[in-house]
Design goal:
With about 1750 residues, the protein is α+β, with helices and mostly antiparallel strands. The protein has a 5-stranded antiparallel sheet, with no helix packed on it. Strands 19-20-21-22-26 form a 5-stranded mixed sheet, with no helix packed on it. It is built from 29 helices and 62 strands.
Amino acid sequence: MADDSSLQAGKEDAELQDEEEPPCLPVDMCYNYEELHSKPFITPESDIPENLLFLSHSYGYDSGRRANLQLLDDKTLVFIAGQLLILLDVCTKQQRYLRSCSGGGIGAIGVSHKKDYLVVAEKGKKPILIVFKYPSLQAYRILRDGTDLAFSSVNFNSDGSLLASLGSAPDYMLTVWNWKQEEVMLRCKAISQEVYRVSFSPYNPGLLTSSGSGHIKFWKMASTFTGLKLEGLIGHFGKTAATDIEGYIELPDGKVLSGSNWGNLLLWDGNAIKVEICSKGGHCCHAGVVQPFALEDGQLMTFGSDGMIRGWDFETIDAADSSSENSKFELEPINEMAVGRHVCIFSIVKSAQADSTVWFAQDSNGAIWKVDLSFTYATPDPVCLFSFHAGPINGLDVSKNSHLMATTASDRSVRVFDFLAKTELTCSCFTQGGTALHWAPPSVTQTGNLLVTGFEDGVVRLLELYDPTGLQIVTRHKVEAQLRLKQAFKPHNAPITTVAYERNGTVLATGSSDCTVFFFTVGEKYEPIGFICVPGPVQLLEWSPPSHPENNLLILCRSGHVVEVPCPDPQALETANSFQLLELPRKTFRFKSIKSRIKREEEIARRQALKEQRQKERKEKEIPDDEEEEEEEEEELPRIYIPEPPSPLYWGFFSEPGKFWLSVGGFDAGYLYHCKFSEDQDETCEKRPVEPFDFLAIHNADRDPIRSLTFSSNRQLMLCGMHSGSVRAYPLDPDDGALTSMQAYWELSVHDSNYGHLRHICCSHDDQFVLTAGDDGNIFSFGLLPHEELQKSLKKKKAKVPSPRVGLENEVLAKDIDDPAAYSIETAKQKLEKDRQRREADEKILAKRKRLAALQSTFKILLSDNLSLPEKIQLTPAELLLDQRFEEQAEREKIRRLDEIQYQMSWREEHSHLSLKKLQDWFSSSSEPNIVTVFAIRSDHSISTYRIPSISSTLLKEESGSSHGGVKGTAPVDEHDVSRDQPEKDSSETDEEDAPPPSVPRAGVQPAADRQVERLQKAAEKAEQARAKIAKRKQEWDKLYAEKPHKDCEDPRDVQAICEARETIGDLKLKTDKTFTVPKHLRMSADRKKVEMINLEDNIREKQTEMNREIVALRDFKLLLLSKLAAQSKQLQKVQSCLPSELHRHPAAPPAIRCEEVPEKSLQCTRALLERYGVLREKRSKDKEEEDEESGMSVLDELEKEMEGTEEIDVLGLSAEEEAEGLNEEELRNMDRDTLLDMQDFLLEQMKSSVDQFDKEHLMCLEKVQMLDCKLKLGNLRQLTLYQELLLLKEVDKSERILQDKLDKRLREQNELLSELEKHRKALELKRKDIAKRQEKEKSNTAAFHALLGDDNNFEEYLTKVYKKKIKRSKKKDQGSDEEDEDSNDDFDDYENWDDDDDDDWDGLDGDGAVEECPQGCDQKLFDDILELRERRLDLEELLAEEKKNAEQLEKECDALVKKMKSVKISLKAAEDDLEEVNREKQQKMNQLDVVVPLRLHQIEIDISGQVPSDLSPALVLTRMELQRLQERVKELEVEKNQQTEVYRQARQQHIRLIKERKDMSNEIESLEKLCHQLMMTRFGREVDMEVLQTLCVNKSVAEMKQEKILRDLANAKDIQQWDRKVQKSRDALVVMTRSNSERLLCLNSLFEQKKELEMKLYTRQKKIGKQLQACSRRADRDQIWSLQELVKKQAEQIEKLSDEISQLGPTGGHMLSTGHAHLPPLPPLSNPTVHKRTRKRGKLVPGFKEDDTTESDITD
């Protein structure tokens, strides 16, 4: 039966599933497109035809939209243009259109890979996706609910079975569709920022990729237990800067290659960047944004915003990897192609033909290109198929004579279209973008060949349009029209915003964003009249129509100002110094917002109408007023709001003279405002806002203001361009300047609803066409008549282009203004005026100077005449001085100029001084000073200083690198890392939680309570002391146990000594042994070898420097000696001058100082030498050409040649003034001959001894130099050896570094694991301690329970069950603790898994109510204390379970770390072995190097034979000191061995002694435990825990609770007294009320008696009548009596139950009637068979109530 039922259930489920599954859509099902596409809105009940406007042609292309170019077949391109989808035939250039269905626009388009389906993604509220068949263009499928507002990208998978769509803000929803069944397959939010593209992987159908602003995301359709789901993985940029990703391509192996903003390619592996690919030399792959787009024939194709298409080798990119820190991989492209100049490729699609290499590219600069990417010699150049405006259309106007249209945009082009033939006639490009355009009216030129265009740089160009076929000019291509520059002028310094001709065509006005309006006279050449300044940037210029009497200009400013000025008269205005027209009268109006007031008045009117309607309804229904109306009237009205800054003005036009209409944007949108200029125009009118005097509401335009406006020629049709890109047409009555007939309208969405603001709309000259241009770059032409009528009325198929003027080909082209920084007309005039003023000032200065020169010549003549006069009659200089102040002023001027010249020359002087100092420092303090050679005096010996070479730059760099970087090692491990798991609360915190809160003392407590508090405090102090003593003893035991060594523990000092010995003992084998292991501290690396070489060089340099100091000191000594000899020689000459010549002794030839001994003197120069150098330099500069021809000798060479032989450098720097003090000639002449001879001998002997002393010191220094030379040669040999070793070490340095890094990494991992393991172990130890504390608290809690229970307690069993009862409680949660919230369910499950023994505790109880009640006879206080202990026990059990769970988790983590530690140790050992092997090989290679060691025979000793063998190759070279050290070490080792043997013997004896002492201590402990047990049994009768006993002897919580009880009893006694008084008052009031009720009962009794009499009378009357009816109603009465009797029984039972409840509730608070009150007498029964209800009161029945009279209140009473 069970199997049958399950089978039946399965069948039912299958049937339900079949019912739930939607039916499959038919394959041939299609929708009617005519019913789907959006249609124009027409005001209901209006006569406006639906086909008022029909689309004629589209001239624009939204080239800035992403992926706005798709290919349907070889000749059909499709792209989005506003609300249309345009299918463009490449060959015939014919267009087909599909309108948007939602009316909100089109977001994206996509084409299947087989080109058989086209998907159009809409925009708007809840947009749809429409899939069209191609080429039939039937609406095949409609997909709904894909996003909220708009789609940004759609894409088919490779086989076309699935469709992916991406929504834009705000939901960014990614949806995968089973589009053929119109079903959502998968859906997920892509990301929370703008997304550009989504696509399926062509190699794996389950993978998708999306990219956008600052991100890329990789998606996978994963299968889960609930079905398919989209799993997204966001890409991490890592060290690479985040970038917007416009394009990407999926590779066959799952990698993704994407572009970047800076032009490099990013290769993604997983969700991380594997490598960044750039061009060779670190250059970018493209300049600007780059996008990869195809993978063909082993080439990966990319295009960029630089207009280049490049091909890269796919295999190289796929295998690319980065080895440097910047993660870049350099690669050169295989092929490249430049599409064109100023091309910015935005997207590219491939031709539909198989094996085709033709691609179609979207140029964001407004073009569509055809590109052949075959990259062969026969590859054609790229071809521009179509060219459009790029960006917003800034100007549009039509010819007043023909079906021609001109446009301009920011792409610097001006284009002319024939919208009758639907072709572009000509295009002209300029240096700046166009901002305004106006076609000159017939009043200016009858032929209609003049265009006025304004540009961004403020230049206005007059362009002449003509048909070149009428000229005799040979052109290469046939051109239907051309634009020729007629005149260019620059009236403004900012972009031109609008231009307008006066109604008679005599004045041209230009407006700009620089807040100026310029006027020009119209003629063959436009001449400036002047300009005026307005309060804000100019938005629009509108001249008054011919119907107005005055010719005025209406100027609209974006700041909310409107200015009216009359047409200026060129002859009446003065513009000599400036073109500003200050005298031109004006009227100013500043718009003041009234929209909030309008809304407020509308709300008041609405409420008033609603109120009147409700009042009318109430009067009709006669209903009184209610409170809801008052509440509604009290609601707050909309407040008055004035926007700041003011709302911008978009459009305006005259209605009447002095009155005008305004279209305002921003907050004030939704109305047309009728305004007028105030009569009192003063200076404050620009700042004083004025409200419009009237307004006209625009339907559905609160957020869609009118941006442009035009009228038909008869002004009976007003066409409006809206902010949302739609076109509105309002039919008007004739001569309706007040727009009273502006009610019904026709509206059609044309341009993009988001950014296609329709800023230009105009009608053709014959009102048969309407042309629109928007900010989305699209231009549309519409026919105003039905298509058939339009074709009939237009006989010609082509617009007429104006013919050229006569002689146009002979005229010279007008001069254009190409420089954006050129002067404007006003600036040029101001510049000319300033030049004129400066020229006049210069002329005045020159005239004054001439006059001053004449006066000076006259004064000089007077001075000469004065000097020719006799001296007596000559005028003195003081008399000639006219004014002393002139001389003082001249003196001050001279001082000022001197100071100025000194200030000007100070920098040059300081510069020259520093340059000289640098040169001197360079030549004198060079690292390689000049060689000083010191010669002996009596011999030919000489010694020279050493030339100390500079340190090698390579070694310096390497040394600095090693000093900064050092050898890579393990990173220090932070011992203070924060633990991952915070430890639980310690025991002190738990004690604080478990302890009851301290009692708060009350005010006014009796003395007994104070004594009780004192006793409690003393008891608490005693308990605290006992607790502290126990804790101290426990700490001592813990410390002792912690110091206790492990059974297998060894002495740490021994372990450390063994480790040090193992590390330092090294390998005792020779280094030449193949198995020799190099100790770690002796391992040599390239860095260490460099340091060793540098140290050796420093040592050599130090020795050389020291010797150089000695040689220079010897040279200085020689200089001093020569000065002394010179002084002695001069003294000797004085002495010999006093002796006869025959007694003269000739001294030895005086020694001379050679130039080699003082080379630094050659760098010194005197001032005379510098002056001579200056003379020669001036001479050379004058005769430069001749000197160059004669010889190439420089100035320095010539100076040296002059100074040779003539200049004797005083190398000694000595003079005769430094001679020793001696006797003068007079004293010498006074001496006798013998004294003079003795003095002569003494001087000669002194000179000889000085020379001998110097030669002796010179010889000693020479010996030192020779010894040092020998040592330096050995050092050089050592350097050579070190260099060879360095080269060898560099060879293996790379591999060694890799292994060392690997080893360091393993060491770091080991240290991290050790640190982590130590943390976990510490945490585990803390957990275990906490568990022990919890268990101890649990034991103490149980002991406290037994202590409370006492002995011989009658309720012991019952109270024990109450104590042990387990309650299912909600777990206590800490706020903000997420971990406890997650584990709460687990903790609750622990309570459900109880043992059978615990369930027995439930069996002995009768339910929760019985357990929680205190049994009779048991102390309620005891029962409450046990419940409190139970709560504490449950808290402790919960905490203990949580601690155990955490401890188990920590143990598992410790085990995992230990396992990981083992694997790390294995890898560490392997790394050490590899490094050791490399070091061993390195040592073997170093052993093969030859080292030169010079030895003498006495240094060679053979210990075995004593003879020197012929072959010394097996000998070992040691120093004598090393040999002695080894011999002494042998003796030291023998002594250490004996010492260790003695230490071992003593340690063994100590070990035996300790074992014996341990046995004795164990026996003593056992005897003490027995004694303790006996004492406990004697004292307590059982074993107790002394610590718990000491804690319980003073129970602080119980004592405090007792104290609290005493205080509460006292307070309750007071409360009872107060309540007794209140009860007495209530009783008195009750007596009064009872008496009152008794009186009422008596009154009721009399009423009952009266009722009885009336009933008797009624009974007698009814008895007479009843006898007649008794026979016929007897049977019915019986049934009624029986039912009433049953009802009475039920009510009697209910009365009894209520009476019982009343009796139970009566004593507690209710009151009953006393027995002393009399009851009413019973009434006699009536004739009718009625049933009497009786109500029980105090045990008696009161008859007289019928069934109908009995109510629930009566029963209760």
